[in-house]
Fold this protein.
Amino acid sequence: MAPAFRLGDERHDLGDRTLVMGILNRTPDSFYDQGATFALDALLRRAEQLVVEGADVLDVGGVKAGPGPEVSEAEELDRTLPTVEALRHRLAVPLSIDTWRATVLDAACAAGAVVGNDISGFADPDYLPVAARHGASVVATHIRLAPRVPDPEPVYGDLVGDVRAFLVARADAARSVGLEADQIALDAGLDLGKTPAMSAVLLRETTDLARLGYPVLLSASNKRFLGELLGLPIDARRDVSLAAAAYGVAHGARIVRVHDVAGTVRVCRTVEAILGAATVPVP
């Protein structure tokens, strides 16, 4: 059975259509845009552009994943809550909140967000109960240590098996508080406690996660592992990011979180057309 994913009141069958999640960084130090959308007006303009380009959902984040200056809960709320409120009133598109804090998830869902995208793997014990109370979907992401903690030399006994087991446990935890299978997506956490080669292996083995029956979310856009494997600076990773998206979708990813929405939409529709093409019998 093909996976499905719930975005608020809408349930999306992902059997033949991939969802494209547009990234919105309300941070001054994003690895990709270095604060280009930190100002609320700039972020709202960017959001409108992503919707025009075909984004199915927008993912709002107020703290970058990597090391950097401390961002308090109050500061994260100050960055994200007005953003979610403004987007909810301006755009008819589902909203995701990129946070590992249950308090931020709670406030964002009250303001209209319908997905909690947590790169910590639900480290906050209140995260899943909050999601369940709001009826929100969640993204379970693998990470070896914790967000913002450097992990330059990660070691695994069985990389793919360890990541799979971690995510199965997180999905089980989500089910235990009442979330349904179509409210849970899995993300291998590329670059999060992985060397570039490890991230490449996990991308290559996307099918392994897809077999678990939950939607697989791929977040590879412009990431460090692509740059380091191919010797590309941050501003030269567009094509390789699109290639990673194409590979992921062809091997079972059904949600792709990206900076380049227009290009990724074209890639997804192309891959879907190829996968769904029917053979014509030869007379």
About this structure: The first strand starts at residue 4 and ends at 7. The first helix runs from residue 40 to 53. Residues 44 and 87 are 7 Å apart (CA to CA). The chain has a mean pLDDT of 96.
